[in-house]
Write a structure and sequence with these properties.
This protein is of the alpha/beta class. Helices cover 46% and strands 15% of the residues. The longest helix is centred in the C-terminal third of the chain and has 15 residues. The site of adenosine monophosphate (AMP) has 19 residues, from α2 and α3.
Length: 227
C-alpha cells in the first residue's frame, strides 16, 4: 500500500466526461471537507512541464485527446498517493478512466483492507460539454478555474481567490480535441459506472445545473458517505 493512505482514508471518485465539472467540484469539496483533490490530468501536465520520462511519453497522447497508458498513469498516481497529506481522504478527479485502472485501484486499496467509499457520476449532456470546455481558463497562480461565459472573476482579469492576474488555457481544450476526449470517455470510462454499481458504491448527480446547485448535491453525498 502506498505510504500516505490509511485504512480510514475516504476514497471518493468523480466520474464524468470532460467539462462535467469534476475539477471545479473537486476543488470545492477539498475546501469544504478537508479532502485532497487528486487529478491525474494535473499530475500528468506537471510531468509534461517538468520533462520527466512519464511526461515525455504522455505529451502527444494528451494533445490528441487520447488516453495515456495505464502504466504511466498508475506510476504518477502511486507516487502521489505516497505523500502524507492523502491520509485526510482523497477525491479522485479523472481517475480511474479504464477498467484496468479501476481494478488496479481496487487492488491497491484492498492491500490496506480498504475500498472505494463512493464513485459519484456527474450526469451531463455531451453537446453542452464542448461549450463548457472551450471557454475555460485557470488562474496561473492558484489554479482557480474560470469560464468565458459561466464563471468570470468579479473584477475582469483578476483572480477572485488569490488576486493573480496571469491565466492559462489548456492546449487540449479545443472543440476537436474535446470530441476525441468525449469518445474516449464513452468507450473506456463510462463502463466503470456499472463496475461501481456492482460494488454498491455508485452515486449519481444531475450536473447540468449551476456550479452551486451541483456543489450542494455533492456535499450531501460526501457528508453522508464519509460520516
Ligand atoms: P483531464 O485533466 O482529466 O481532462 O486529463 C487531461 C488528459 O490527461 C486526458 O485527456 C488524458 O490524455 C490524460 N489523462 C488524465 N487522466 C488520465 C487517466 N486516468 N488515464 C488516461 N489518461 C489520462
Amino acid at each position: 500500500m502506498s505510504g500516505g493512505m490509511q485504512n480510514s482514508t475516504a476514497v471518493l471518485i468523480l466520474l464524468g466526461p470532460p467539462g462535467a465539472g469534476k475539477g471545479t467540484q473537486a476543488r470545492m469539496l477539498q475546501e469544504r471537507f478537508g479532502l485532497v483533490q487528486l487529478s491525474t490530468g494535473d499530475l500528468l501536465r506537471a510531468a509534461v512541464a517538468a520533462g520527466t520520462p512519464a511526461g515525455l511519453a504522455a505529451k502527444a497522447v494528451m494533445e490528441a485527446g487520447g488516453l495515456v497508458s495505464d502504466e504511466i498513469v498508475l506510476e504518477v498516481l502511486k507516487d502521489r498517493l505516497g505523500d502524507p497529506d492523502v491520509a485526510r481522504g482523497v477525491i479522485l478527479d479523472g481517475f480511474p478512466r479504464t477498467r484496468a485502472q479501476a481494478e488496479a485501484l481496487d487492488a491497491l486499496l484492498a492491500e490496506a483492507g480498504q475500498k472505494v467509499t463512493a464513485a459519484i457520476s456527474l450526469e451531463v449532456d455531451d453537446e453542452a460539454m464542448v461549450g463548457r470546455v472551450s471557454g475555460r481558463y485557470t488562474c496561473a497562480g492558484c489554479g482557480e478555474g474560470y469560464h468565458d461565459e459561466f464563471k468570470q472573476p468579479a473584477k475582469a482579469g483578476v483572480c477572485d481567490k488569490c488576486g493573480g492576474t496571469a491565466f492559462t488555457r489548456r492546449a487540449d481544450d479545443t472543440a476537436e480535441t474535446v470530441r476525441a476526449r468525449l469518445e474516449a470517455y464513452h468507450a473506456q470510462t463510462a463502463p466503470l459506472i456499472a463496475h461501481y454499481k456492482m460494488m454498491g458504491v455508485l452515486e449519481s448527480v444531475d450536473a447540468m445545473g449551476s456550479i452551486d446547485t451541483i456543489a450542494s448535491a455533492l456535499g450531501s453525498i460526501v457528508g453522508r458517505v464519509s460520516a
